[in-house]
Design brief:
Order of helices and strands: EEEEH
Distance between the termini: 15 Å
Oligomer: single chain
Strand content: 15-25%
Low-confidence stretches: 1-5, 17-23
Shape: globular
Largest sheet: 4 strands, antiparallel
Helix content: 10-25%
Mean pLDDT: 74
Number of strands: 4
């Protein structure tokens, strides 16, 4: 059985003549470990790390500037709800921008 999903991403090494590669402020880490109980997607900025888990209605939000060891999860902290919503939106935008454009909607049927 052949997978219908491609590899998403951007070549950061570029091609000859591509000296102006833009790397935006938001980095995305997708964790898919075979031994993991649940998948997760994280958006990491210079200040924050937001992780959304595949199952359940929970996640992680860490202020990397004030909590570099990631000991205080702010996911349910009402004072951080605006940050959580903003980063969740940015994560969704990043995931959409990295989608495999080679697949048509009928390819999954």
């Amino acid at each position: 059985m052949q997978s219908c999903f491609g590899m998403q991403g951007r070549n950061l090494f570029g091609e000859p003549g591509d000296e102006d590669i833009l790397i935006d402020d938001y980095g995305m880490i997708v964790l898919e470990e075979p031994d993991a109980k649940v998948g997760l997607v994280s958006l990491v900025t210079p200040r924050w790390r937001l992780s959304v888990f595949e199952e359940g209605d929970w996640g992680q939000l860490f202020d990397l500037e004030n909590d570099p060891l990631e000991l205080n999860n702010l996911w349910k902290d009402s004072a951080a709800s605006t940050v959580r919503e903003h980063l969740t939106h940015r994560l969704l935008q990043k995931m959409v921008s990295l989608r495999d454009r080679r697949l048509s909607p009928t390819a999954l049927a």
